[in-house]
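Thread title: Can someone regenerate the structure for this chain?

I was given the following input by a collaborator and told the matching structure tokens would be attached. They weren't. Posting the sequence so someone can regenerate them.
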Amino acid sequence: MIDHKQLHQDGYALLHGAIPTEWLDDLRAAFDAGVMPSDQWPVPRGADWRHSVLDLDPKVQAVCRLPALLAVVGGLIGERFFLSQVEGREPLAGGGYQNLHRDLSAQRPGDTVNAIAYFDDYGSENGATRIVPGSHRPAQGETPFDFNDESWSVQLSGSAGDILVFDADLVHAGSLNPTGARRRSILVGYFAGPLYATHLETVNLRNIRMDKVGWFDPPGLVFGE
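Best answer:
Regenerated them for you:
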């Protein structure tokens, strides 16, 4: 049962153990098989990350459609939405650090939601995500967020199979991977229905290969593809 008030107040939810444990080996194998050097993507990716093309893998697609995940995404977006993209990301040893930032909604607050599904255990030792709870909807007249101020950030940690779901306007960042321990994950993007035309204009730049994005209503039920 989703606490919608808390979800919208925090701007995120961390779903522990959302991915079935028996899927994880196949998901890690799909990630490793799809690794592509950063300079071979249509738009080069950060060189201190390992990037994987895996959007056609059936198990990866199943993760993107997990009912618990879709229910939270629908709760945040609040209208019919679609799966826009999914790609694999992993911070390399000594890399992965990002300044706090917002990914930003496309046209209106709440029309874009991201999810990070972790295939390995994650924490400060391997570059896990930092977030600032409640930072997605600044109050009117509030001082603009200082992205150099880490005092409000929370370093996440957890186990393989967890999924972080968050409003694109939530302040967040990747962290340094000091040990080089594996931290494979997928970054999944969901958009509100009115953004579909914009999505089609940029599929090649984002190296999206899946031809059926998948449409869902807020409770997470598939409308059709």
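The mean pLDDT is 92.
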